[in-house]
């Protein structure tokens, strides 16, 4: 049966985002724990549009590596809320901060699951457009799931607005800034692969790979580095398989970047976890 907002008791705030708040909630009758993303009725139209798009996408998707939606609520006050499965370890970003950098074996587990989610999305003509550590959720079984579809795009035949500036600048691929130079055969799906490559590097190195540790990103410096610089590479000590995997993700020319499907067969993912 459908969940109604009166069934849910708020336990704590899990995160604040662009216009919305995510709460940990408990279902009063079943005691089940969920995450509830709430956007208030008086929010601006962009915020409302984003949460409605997120609802639409979560309703359509069914993958082990995409956060599961248990229902959507719309109150007479205009408040909109999404009931999601609760991911008890939070985001990869918070895990990096609390437990330190990830080993290659762990990153291979992360990469396989994110790619599984991305290949599902891309096959369903959805581009996430904001893949980064704080939009990837984890639970204690080390299951990794893609969340936050606020700026995602459902492709309908045309390439129209995929070049618009949405998402977090730092993780944006060269062709999103400069489609004429790097977009050869413009392929919006490939921008999610770029963001995945940067995400894995960040989890390995402990800081955003385009910037030295501790430096705060400034938009212009970053854009120059992304468009005019070489793609970042891993420090000494990284294995050849990991290095190769990241290179396949961080091809500046989007048509040379591997697809999610192809990356799923990369040797980095099939290594013996002990080595
Ligand atoms: P925003 O668009 O505001 O960034 P997100 O969907 O990324 O919205 O959620 C914001 C934060 O709330 C996340 O970074 C995470 O810390 C927390 N959060 C979101 N969904 C869940 C969930 N299902 N389980 C646990 N924490 C979550
Ligand atoms: Mg987010």
Automatic annotation (TrEMBL):
Its EC number is 2.7.12.2. Residues 8-269 form the Protein kinase domain. GO terms for molecular function: ATP binding; MAP kinase kinase activity; protein serine/threonine kinase activity. It is an enzyme of class 2 (transferase). The keyword Transferase applies. This is mitogen-activated protein kinase kinase. GO terms for biological process: pollen-pistil interaction; response to other organism; response to stress. Keywords: ATP-binding, Kinase, Nucleotide-binding, Phosphoprotein, Serine/threonine-protein kinase, Transferase. It catalyses: L-tyrosyl-[protein] + ATP = O-phospho-L-tyrosyl-[protein] + ADP + H(+); L-threonyl-[protein] + ATP = O-phospho-L-threonyl-[protein] + ADP + H(+); L-seryl-[protein] + ATP = O-phospho-L-seryl-[protein] + ADP + H(+). Pfam families: Pkinase. InterPro entries: Kinase-like_dom_sf (IPR011009), Prot_kinase_dom (IPR000719), Protein_kinase_ATP_BS (IPR017441), Ser-Thr/Tyr_kinase_cat_dom (IPR001245), Ser/Thr_kinase_AS (IPR008271). It comes from Quillaja saponaria. It comes from the Eukaryota. Belongs to the protein kinase superfamily. STE Ser/Thr protein kinase family. MAP kinase kinase subfamily. SMART domains: S_TKc. ATP binds at residue 37.
